[in-house]
Amino acid sequence: xxxxxxxxxxxxxxxxxxxxxxxxxxxxxxxxxxxxxxxxxxxxxxxxxxxxxxxxxxxxxxxxxxxxxxxxxxxxxxxxxxxxxxxxxxxxxxxxxxxxxxxxxxxxxxxxxxxxxxxxxxxxxxxxxxxxxxxxxxxxxxxxxxxxxxxxxxxxxxxxxxxxxxxxxxxxxxxxxxxxx
Length: 181
Fold this sequence. Notes:
Elements: E1 2-4, E2 14-16, H1 28-38, E3 46-50, H2 56-63, E4 68-73, H3 76-89, E5 95-99, H4 102-108, E6 113-118, H5 127-132, E7 137-148, E8 160-168, E9 171-178
Parallel strand pairs: 3-4, 3-6, 4-5, 6-7
Antiparallel strand pairs: 1-2, 7-9, 8-9
């Protein structure tokens, strides 16, 4: 399966995703809307792409000027596609791909991020794990959660507050800001 990087240094380039139900790549429409909302905040940011799949969100962030992206993905086929995409675009030095679970990463991580993208499987949102990621946010950092477009917005926790929420049919995005401490 092919996906297009929308804008920036790699705009128009195709990346691959596994042909399986193991991942649900974020649609181009939703990705574009999300990055338009974030705007210049992505420039020189340290980003985390949790539940990364083939890396389309983190790669889009790199394309738009992020300084570094860390990717976490547990599915072997998706991890293989992610590694191939990183190599294809020549961004090995600016990325850290991690094959493993987000839950394990949260327990051992020491790094903090400016922006965290969270796109868990829609049939298992793992909200407690998603919100545990907020401890890895810099003060005033941003976390964007993709979730099914039905139901209520998951509320903030751990010193983060919902600052925006958008719905795009079957997908929705919630934007959380870590309170400046």
